[in-house]
Amino acid sequence: MARGLATGPSPSRRAGTSSAAFSALLLSAQLALAGTAPPPPPNSTVNVNYVYAASLGFGGYTLAGLTANVYTLPINYTVGDTPMDGWSLRFMLPVQLGIYDFKAQVDGMRIGLSQQSISIVPGAELQIPVTDNLVFKPFAQFGEAHSFGVGGQNPDAWVYLAGARSVAQWRVDDYTLSLGNGIIYAGDNTVGPGFGEHYVALQIAGEIRRPLGFKIGEWAPDLGIFVADYYYPAPLQFSRFLKSPLRIANQNEVGFSIGSAKSRKILWFSNPRVGAGLVFGGGLTVYHINFGFPF
């Protein structure tokens, strides 16, 4: 998780389109409560940690009545030997749909709100070979997100990410061992009046892959198992209805992926892999669909 999303992830963040995206909750939850016991009690507003959700790429979580799910089409294209021989330049155009639902019950009154968002955050990643088995990958992305649904205000937000990752790989007999590191700065700002937020994440992960030893037609599948750690120098914050915000300083992930033991290209994806991970820690559990080793 990615995934996957800080000041109140992954890759976070409260709502990027959410400052936008769940301004509906900021307004509607207060109005609902105001009808029963004005003034509303503390923490009666709910914000989606949008940048965290967005950083997952493909995944989601449920916390204190709020369910966030994001679905990303990871479009990218790599140009080899650019800008120097041996280097590569990868262009990214991720298109993401977010679906956010909130449900609660107060004094017999049911509160239900729903928002959706769509974002396009293009960027580029430079892949620099440092040694035969180590690649350094600085990157930057900048784009816009738009939210829609019930009661949204200021529905547009700028979303940005920048940082660097590195991946080292070794072959040991039939096994491929990978070690990844990363530092990520990400955030969002509402277009026009509104709030913005940002986060810093320090990441490390390791993976081991091995061919499964059989073929399906021309495809020779392999299986990868990986673990990752995500540390946030300033804790991530997640709104909780009528409770103090949840603050998370560290998360871990365990996951797997399936790909091809031999190099191949499907559509615009080179050596595609797909898998799933579980991100946990600090009181939040997140499901994360991954497209290969997260680095």
Describe this structure in words.
The protein is mainly beta and 295 residues long. It has 3 helices and 15 strands. The protein has helices spanning 16-21, 23-34, 50-56; strands at residues 59-63, 66-80, 88-106, 109-120, 123-131, 134-149, 156-172, 175-190, 196-211, 221-240, 243-260, 265-266, 269-270, 274-280, 286-290. The longest helix is centred in the N-terminal third of the chain and has 12 residues, at 23-34. It is globular and about 65 Å long. Mean pLDDT is 79; it is low at 1-28.
What's the topology here?
Blueprint: H1 16-21, H2 23-34, H3 50-56, E1 59-63, E2 66-80, E3 88-106, E4 109-120, E5 123-131, E6 134-149, E7 156-172, E8 175-190, E9 196-211, E10 221-240, E11 243-260, E12 265-266, E13 269-270, E14 274-280, E15 286-290
Antiparallel strand pairs: 1-2, 1-15, 2-3, 3-4, 3-5, 4-6, 5-6, 6-7, 7-8, 8-9, 9-10, 10-11, 11-14, 12-13, 14-15
